What we know:
Layout: H1 2-8, E1 18-28, E2 31-42, E3 53-55, E4 58-65, H2 72-80, E5 85-87, E6 91-95
Parallel strand pairs: 2-6
Antiparallel strand pairs: 1-2, 1-4, 3-4, 5-6
Amino acid sequence: MKSLFFDAISNWNSAYTASQLHFVGVNKNGKLALIAVRIYMNNSNDPQVVPHYRAGMVEAGCWQILLSDMSVHQVVGKLLSNDGLIIQGIGCLNIAK
């Protein structure tokens, strides 16, 4: 399903020059199990990146995806993997299973 989506939008890849990952999750055993995720693909960087918030076991934040380092497709793959996506200053995120 993931590949079908990225294949469908592949003709527009050059238009997406900036992307952000917005998330809410619960910290479980040192990993952030995401319960809500949004990837916003845009044509310009948003300088208003929301800081990372923590209240007990619940965490939320926004991370600017550096497309020179990792594609959105790779970010989604890492979020779905057992190893998760490691973000400096935030930790390990993955989709809650």
